[in-house]
From TrEMBL:
This is Alanine racemase. The modification N6-(pyridoxal phosphate)lysine is found at residue 34. It catalyses: L-alanine = D-alanine. The lineage of its organism: Bacteria, Pseudomonadati, Pseudomonadota, Gammaproteobacteria, Moraxellales. One of its GO terms (molecular function) is alanine racemase activity.
């Protein structure tokens, strides 16, 4: 059997959740498990996140999967519902909604008695400059105050566009959030994702929404998970299925893009873009064998890659770490010109999961 395998370290996931508790001790934690728990597998991750206060997902289907698995914590639909007929399902399953445009408000008010009767909070989204979802100031002040007057329990919610970097928009977003929070007082607040939890602890307020940090990848380009005291949760491996010795001047792989400058040993590993391993590497990429880094050579194919094993004891069947505790997913992503989030989320269903 082909041995491309994803291992999930549940103890590492629990450790990272505890890091959130340390960094935001007075806030409730809404653990983001959208996109199949960032590619890690919701079913595999929920037990390790059992001590979270709530879950966050992108759509109703993801929320219902959590309920079907037996978890009763609050769940927030961070994009809200997409049609009015979803509202009844939301209420029946004790799922909370973000509202970010007038139509969603109309749907909410049409089910006011049932929604309030279930003690469900309404998360009202502020568009403070990211310009994706939400109401701008001063419209959101009117929305929240009117919902409060009608008996709804409201959470003012916002998402930073540049929490991972220094950017002038950060101050604008913070100031608008604080302006609205004061104008709607008392109102609960939530604006911190993983990067903001680290960067602005004074903004943790009532709810924090950790995502990538839970899974042991960094929200910052210039800080590793080790710098942040986090542990990688996913280890992605495959096995060596062939060994070749090539001479100087010989080529490797599609397009013959790699030419050996000396005699060398190479191994073929059973992994490729069909498994979700990225194909395009503007920078040199590496894998790890027994903790030792070695380079990927030539193009990544659908099912195979070639690696340099010159001077390395790597017989057939040797396990190769594509990313994990030795070769961080963030480093693979950086070589690929992307971010760890994308690599984790785009794994295919083909690798075995353990």
């Amino acid at each position: 059997m082909r041995q491309a395998t994803v291992y999930i370290d549940r103890e590492a996931l629990q450790y990272n959740l505890n890091r959130v508790k340390q960094l935001a001790p007075t806030a409730q934690i809404v653990s983001m498990v959208k996109a199949n728990a960032y590619g890690h597998g919701v079913k595999d991750c929920l037990a390790a996140l059992g001590e979270t206060d709530a879950f966050g997902v992108a759509c109703l289907e993801e929320a219902l999967e959590i309920r079907e698995l037996g978890y009763q914590q609050p769940i927030t639909l961070i994009e809200g519902i997409f049609s009015e007929d979803e509202m009844q399902v939301v209420i029946e399953n004790n799922i909370e909604c973000v509202v970010h445009h007038q139509q969603q408000l109309d749907w909410l008010r049409a089910h006011k008695a049932a929604y309030i009767g279930k003690n469900l909070k309404v998360w009202v989204k502020l568009n403070s400059g990211m310009n994706r979802l939400g109401f701008k100031v001063p419209e959101i002040i009117k929305v929240i105050n009117s919902l409060k007057a009608e008996g709804f329990s409201c959470v003012l919610a916002m998402h930073f566009a540049n929490a991972d970097a220094e950017h002038p928009l950060n101050e604008q977003q913070k100031n608008q959030f604080l302006q609205v929070k004061q104008a709607c007082a008392p109102v609960m607040g939530s604006c911190c994702n993983s990067a903001a939890i680290y960067k602005w602890p004074e903004l943790n307020f009532d709810f924090v929404r950790p995502g990538i940090m839970l899974y042991g990848a960094s929200p910052f380009a210039d800080q590793s998970v080790h710098d942040l005291d986090l542990k990688p949760v996913m280890t992605f491996t495959a096995e060596i299925i062939a060994l070749n010795h090539i001479q100087a001047g010989e080529h490797v792989g599609y397009g013959s893009t790699f030419t050996a400058d000396q005699d060398m040993d190479l191994a073929i590993v059973s992994i490729g873009y069909g498994d979700g391993y990225p194909r395009a590497f503007p920078k040199q990429n590496y894998v790890a064998i027994n903790g030792q880094a070695t380079r990927v050579i030539g193009r990544v194919a659908m099912d195979m890659i070639a690696i340099d094993v010159t001077g390395i004891d790597a017989p057939l069947g040797t396990e190769v770490e594509l990313w994990g505790k030795n070769r961080l997913v963030d480093d693979v992503a950086e070589a690929n010109g992307t971010i760890g989030y994308e690599l984790l989320c785009r794994l295919s269903a083909r690798p075995i999961r353990k």
